[in-house]
Amino acid sequence: MKFSIKRSAFINELANVLRAISSKTTIQILTGLKLVATDNELILTGSNSDITIQSTLSTSNGALELIIEEPGAIVLPARFFNEIIKKLPDNKVTLEVKTGFQANIISGSAEFTVNGQDANNYPHLPEMESNENVQIAPDLLREVIDQTRIAVSKQESRPILTGIHVLLTSNQLTAIATDSHRLAQRKVTLPETVEVPADVVIPGTSMTELARMIVDQNEAIELQIAENMVLFKFGHTLFYSRLLEGNYPETSRLIPDTSTTDLEIDATTLLNAISRASLLSHEGRNNVIKLTLNPEQKLVKISGDSADVGNVEEELTFESLDGDELAISFNPDYMGDALKSFGGIKVKLAFNSPLRPFTLVPADDEVNFVQLITPVRTF
C-alpha cells in the first residue's frame, strides 16, 4: 500500500472521520482509523459501534493531490496518526506499508513508523436494505436537529428518550424530542412523497455530530432508513448511525390545542430578561423564576430571588397579551434553550394554568415548530 496526498486537505478529511472514533470503546480495533487504497480511491473509515463515518477520496479530485501507487489496507491508531499528520513539516505526506502492519509516514525531512492492525479484522459496514431515499436540504436538516436536540434526555434510565423521534409520512418529516420536562417538535415538508412511511428513533449524540458535519454542505442530504440503521449521504461522505430500540412515547396528546392566556413577545427580549433573572435563580436551591401576566394592567413581569443573594424584578415590553391573569414558574435554563432555538423572531406563548405545560411557537406561524415546557410547582 502506498499513496501520497496534500496534507492540509488530508487533515480536513481526517477531522470528519475522527468524529466517530472514541478512545473509550471496549473493542480495541475501533480506536483505529481504517485506510483502504484502491486503484483510484482512498477510503477512510471510523466507528464507535453507534456511529460509523466513511469518507471516500478520489484521485480525480485535484484539490487533494492524491496519488495512489499501490492498493492496500491498514488500521492505524486514530488519535496518534491524526496528531502526526497535523505536525508534519511539509504540505505533502506519503504513507507506505511494505510488509506486515507497519506504516511509514514521510513528509519533508520527517519520517514516522507506526504500528497498525490488519484491516480484515475491522468490522464490516452494515448492509442497508432500503429502497427509500429521502432528500432534505442541509441547512433545513441542521435547523431541525438544533431545534429538537435541546430536549433530548441525558438520563440513561430511559434510553429511548436519549434519541430524536423521526417520523416520515407522505411528504412530511416530523422530529420530536422530550426529556419528560420539556418537548420540542418540528415538522418540515419534503420535496417528494415518501412511498414507505418510517418511524425511528435516532440517538441525539449521532444527530449532534451530523449537524456539525453538514455546516458547510451545499448539496442535498440523502437519507436512508433500514431496520436498525440510518444512513445519511452527503458529498463523498457516508454517515451511519444505529437506531434506538423500543417504542417512543406518544407525544401528540401532550401539546394543548387551546389556551386561556396568550403572550406575543420578541424572543430576544424575553431571553435577555430570563438570563438576567437566572443570575439569582442559579444561586438558589430550586433554580426557578416566575413570569407574571396581567392582561388588564397590560403587565408582563419576570422575577426571581435567592435567599442568600437577593431578588430581581423586571417589566417587559411585548407585542400583545390576552386572556386571564396568570403567574407561572419555570426552569430558566429550559426556557432559555427554547427561546434560543427560535432565533431573533417574535414568539407566541400559550398558557392554561400555573401547573399545566405551556407552549412556544413562532408568531408568524410559517414554521411548524413548537416547544413545550412543564412549569415548576412552587407551593
From TrEMBL:
Name listed for the protein in its UniProt record: Beta sliding clamp
Keyword Transferase: yes
Record InterPro entries: DNA_clamp_sf, DNA_polIII_beta, DNA_polIII_beta_C, DNA_polIII_beta_cen, DNA_polIII_beta_N
Function: Confers DNA tethering and processivity to DNA polymerases and other proteins. Acts as a clamp, forming a ring around DNA (a reaction catalyzed by the clamp-loading complex) which diffuses in an ATP-independent manner freely and bidirectionally along dsDNA. Initially characterized for its ability to contact the catalytic subunit of DNA polymerase III (Pol III), a complex, multichain enzyme responsible for most of the replicative synthesis in bacteria; Pol III exhibits 3'-5' exonuclease proofreading activity.
Compartments reported by the entry: Cytoplasm
Domain DNA polymerase III beta sliding clamp central: from-to ranges: 135-250
Record family assignment: Belongs to the beta sliding clamp family.
Organism annotation: Limosilactobacillus alvi
Keywords in alphabetical order: Cytoplasm, DNA replication, DNA-binding, DNA-directed DNA polymerase, Nucleotidyltransferase, Transferase
Residue ranges occupied by any DNA polymerase III beta sliding clamp N-terminal domain in the UniProt entry: 1-126
Keyword Nucleotide-binding among record annotations: no
Record's subunit section: Forms a ring-shaped head-to-tail homodimer around DNA.
Molecular functions per Gene Ontology: DNA-directed DNA polymerase activity
CDD domains: beta_clamp
Domain DNA polymerase III beta sliding clamp C-terminal: residue ranges: 253-377
